[in-house]
Amino acid sequence: MQTSDFDYDLPEELIAQEPAPRRDGSRLLVLDRQRDTLEDRRFEELAELLPTDALLVLNDSRVFPARLRGQKPTGGGVEVLLVSPRPPGPGDDAPNHCVWHCLCRSSKGLAPGAKVRFGGAGEAPAVVATVRQLHPGGGADLDFTRPGGSPIGGSDWLMDWATDVGETPLPPYIRRPGGERDLDRDRYQTVYAAERGSVAAPTAGLHFTVPLLEALTQRGLELAYLTLHVGPGTFRPVRSDSVGEHHMDAERVQVTPQLADAVRRAKAAQRPVLAVGTTTVRALEGMASAPGQLDAGDSEVSLFITPGHEFRIVDGLITNFHLPRSTLLMLVSALAGRDPVLAAYRHAVREGYRFYSYGDAMLIR
Asked: Is 67-165 in CATH node 2.40.10?
């Protein structure tokens, strides 16, 4: 397969820069694979569109304000995206000290040993980071130290601190003036977010409201949750001409015994398992050891799902509209077929659907 096989034309004005006024007020394009039909609906109608015996699996990862802006001693600006904590090495277990893998952007670059100062305004104390190691593509391991005083919270003190001084890591295609706004702290987060650790929202879940979740359970659907902490790899473009040459970044996944049991029971009873978002698909398929068998535990998943993948768990999907040539579009095409998906995307463009993170949604059943 070639990356160009997953291309389509998208007018820039259809890339949503703001969320819909209401979470469940988005449009919903329904792709019915058995009937080979497309139907224009509203997300608030979801409860009547899903099988009443379905198991609906959602990703409860919480986005934290992972984008930090700092300064070098020379005064040069540095932008950092916190990606994931590194396992502690010798001397890394001090309570006010931690090492994180980050993506960094600096006008003149960074060198090992360079120091960057963050925060220090208002009530938030300053934090100093030392570049420990550089990686290709703008990555670096930064050694963060909070000088003086007692640590904020426990082992997650850096995320606690970033909550006060960091910015919501909005996707690069949201280019509105001023960047982050107050509403992003609320709307770039699902209503059921629980486990902190993502640098990007599992965006299919942004459409759900508490009343809608309650309506689903009242109709008989079973809801269950897993945690996949979304990393920046979700935005990483496929740069190779051949799809098979692309490698996915690993992401942390937590599957509880309760979820594994719910999946086992659903598959044994031939009830459909529906995933909310491509992150949930990657987690379920990456943690599956056999058809209908989901393994519980904490792990990392780097499964790259493309057409030809044999789905072991997932029967249907609720998702947003994705970038041309992206791994997410390839995953959706693996489930529903490349030609039907691209035909659905052409329909969405003609009908003026809103695309990407703050855009409209699609149901594949």
From this structure: yes
